[in-house]
UniProtKB/TrEMBL annotation:
Residues 1-19 have a biased composition (Gly residues). The chain crosses the membrane at residues 55-75, 95-119, 186-213, 284-308. GO terms for cellular component: plasma membrane. It comes from the Bacteria. GO terms for molecular function: ABC-type oligopeptide transporter activity; ATP binding; ATP hydrolysis activity. It comes from Glaciibacter psychrotolerans. The keyword S-adenosyl-L-methionine does not apply. It is a multi-pass membrane protein. This is ATP-binding cassette subfamily B protein. SMART domains: AAA. It is found in: Cell inner membrane. The lineage of its organism: Bacteria, Bacillati, Actinomycetota, Actinomycetes, Micrococcales. Residues 57-346 form the ABC transmembrane type-1 domain. Residues 383-621 form the ABC transporter domain.
């Protein structure tokens, strides 16, 4: 991946043990272990590009508000020197009223502009954050299947929720804070110099020291923030694994609830410790800054006394009051800029984690000249493997390939079955046809065209898949069915359900097609879930139907009902069955026997029995044990 080094898609925690802020060499090593994204600041700025108009208005409001904030101290000098204590004269109440009125007008204007500015920054910031989350989600949708098989779901969820949420404050407040504080600092500094340049030197002499200290604190906070997000990823993964329906069933089945609680508790304690460290990091720094800022007015009074004692004519009571007021206008925006800089340094680890995922490139993507599957063709529904070999991406280079020099042709409308021992490579065949994985060598052809030359969405739209592990959403039966065809009418749903032998069962439910199936369909039996999955595929009406051990997890009665539905579903379309139970594929036009990644036998059920090979042995074993 260009522009990035460090970890890939996995969820392992980066970083080592505790590193003190004074150990620069160890700190650099710690930072080097995190993902490094080139041009990170420019890429963060690019997120705001679609919102130029509201940003421009925000910038104008920020500049105006910052400029207005310097006016009251200057008016204060006039109030003291010209209105309240004019030299040798009585207080000028008319001038005092005018000046006080101007100050009130400035305060009201600043407040109104502040409300408007806050609404704009909150709107833009949250829109950017929302767009970033959708962009990340959409990008993950394009990733190949192997990415999800090697990455915990909880880790992916953490990137979408915790990491994007963690940068919300930066996205919402950074621009207005940086601009506002910068303009305020410049204006206040200019005002201080105009009031008295000697006092200005006293007020700002220690600023460089604070900036250097702030940078060191920011490095420590960024490291701790990265570890905190990794810990959140682990907690999310534990929650997703342990509190899903499958996880709860597993922990209860093995009485491991206390162990799961202990696992979560350990990671939670780690998270607590990291959050405390994150909160405390930099507190001594800001305590010193606050002491410094609070002490400056007293130092100014002391220096002003020396200046007055030496006959300085430009140091008046109004000058001192105005100067200390302006000094506060300078110091607190400087403190704000330091906090923003710390936030940016802290959030850089989160942005790096987000862009790390955005920089992932799908291993499988459409070519620029990719074609749609022809609507009508003599080869429609034909599936061919031409000397196909395949090994999974995470396999050792010297390991035996999952598929090795596999060739076959399934003609349109044929019922083909793949059988063989577990791990022989049968399911891998079903992954290569819709191009969920890319063949390592050879060609996979669909309708006579290499699948690498086809638009993948077009390819998949012509293929229906019914797997052993049926996935249903926590939604109604109708919503689960319409996942295949969003605009399907109730009549179409019922037609598909009847073909799948599930309509009568649905009709017996009090809420019929509006029945909520529960998470992963756990309110339904295995046979009912499988038949709903078949009905969903029938709504799609694909040319090619892939059945990946669709009945192997069912009891004998459910299997017969589901098999009848599958027989209906396979009529008139090319059907490819990955079978464990050979009784389900006796009527197949052709049976391919796969062993150790190679097709070792092929033929009809009768032909294979007569040969007395692997198929005959498998069939004999199943008949004997049934």
């Amino acid at each position: 991946m260009s522009g990035m080094r460090g970890g890939g898609g996995g969820g392992g925690r980066r970083g080592g043990g505790r590193v003190s802020s004074g150990d620069a060499r160890a700190q650099r090593a710690e930072n080097a272990s995190a993902p490094v994204i080139h041009n990170l600041l420019s890429r963060i700025g690019g997120l705001f590009t679609p919102y130029r108009r509201p940003l421009t208005l925000t910038i104008i409001l920020v500049i105006v508000s910052a400029a207005l904030s310097v006016i009251p101290p200057l008016l204060t000098q006039r109030v003291f020197d010209d209105a309240l204590f004019p030299r040798g004269q009585e207080p000028d109440l008319r001038l005092l009223a005018i000046l006080v009125g101007l100050m009130a007008a400035v305060f009201v204007s600043s407040a109104l502009l502040g409300v408007w500015q806050t609404w704009l920054t909150a709107t833009v910031g949250n829109k950017v954050m929302g767009a970033l989350r959708v962009k990340l989600f959409s990008h993950l949708q394009s990733m190949e299947l192997s990415f999800f098989t090697r990455t915990k779901t909880g880790v992916i969820q953490s990137r979408l929720q915790n990491d994007v949420g963690g940068v919300a404050n930066v996205l919402t407040n950074t621009i207005s804070s940086v601009l506002g504080n910068t303009v305020t600092v410049i204006a206040a500094f200019a005002a201080m110099v105009l009031l008295n340049w000697q006092l200005t030197i006293v007020a700002v002499i220690l600023m460089p020291v604070l900036v250097i200290a702030q940078r060191r604190v920011g490095q420590v906070r960024a490291r701790i923030a990265g570890k905190t997000q990794e810990s959140l990823s682990d907690m999310t993964a534990i929650t997703q694994e342990a509190l899903s329906v499958s996880g709860i069933l597993l922990s209860k089945s093995f009485t491991r609830q206390s162990a799961e609680t202990a696992r979560y508790s350990d990671e939670n304690q780690n998270q607590v410790n990291l959050q405390v460290r994150l909160e405390m990091s930099g507190q001594w720094f800001f305590a010193m800054v606050n002491i410094f800022l609070s002490s400056i007015p007293a130092i100014v009074y002391l220096v002003a006394g020396f200046l007055l004692n030496n006959g300085a004519a430009d140091v008046t009571a109004g000058t001192i009051v105005a100067f200390t007021t302006v000094q506060a206008r300078l110091m607190f925006p400087l403190l704000g800029l330091m906090r923003v800089a710390l936030d940016l340094q802290t959030s850089s680890a989160l942005f790096a984690r987000i862009f790390e995922y955005l920089d992932l490139r799908p291993a499988i993507s459409d070519r620029r000249d990719a074609l749609a599957v022809p609507a009508t063709s003599a080869a429609s529904g034909r599936v061919e493997f031409d000397q196909v070999s395949f090994r999974y991406p995470d396999m050792a280079t010297d390991a035996r390939p999952t598929l090795d020099d596999v060739s076959f042709t399934i003609e349109p409308g044929q019922f083909a079955a793949f059988v063989g021992p577990s791990g022989a490579g049968k399911t891998t065949v079903s992954y290569l046809i819709p191009r969920f994985y890319e063949a390592s060598a050879g060609r996979v052809l669909f309708a006579g065209i290499d699948v690498r030359d086809l638009i993948q969405n077009s390819l998949v739209s012509h293929i229906g898949i019914v797997s052993q592990e049926t996935y249903l959403f926590h939604a109604t039966i109708a919503e689960n069915l319409r996942y295949a065809k969003p605009d399907a009418t109730l009549e179409e749903l019922e037609t598909a359900a009847r073909a799948a032998n599930i309509h009568d069962t649905i009709a017996s439910f009090p809420e019929r097609y509006d029945t909520v199936v529960g998470e992963r369909g756990y309110r339904l039996s295995g046979g009912e879930k499988q038949r709903i999955a078949i009905a969903r595929v029938l709504l799609k009406d694909p040319e090619v139907l892939i059945l990946d051990e669709a009945t192997s997890a069912l009891d004998a009665i459910s299997e017969r009902v589901v098999q009848a539905a599958l027989d209906t579903a396979s009529r008139g379309r090319t059907t490819i069955a990955i079978a464990h139970r050979l009784s389900t594929i006796l009527a197949a036009d052709v049976i391919f026997v796969v062993d150790a990644g190679r097709i070792v036998e092929r033929g009809s059920h009768t032909e294979l029995l007569e040969r007395g090979g692997i198929y005959a042995r498998l069939y004999s074993e199943q008949v004997t044990t049934s």
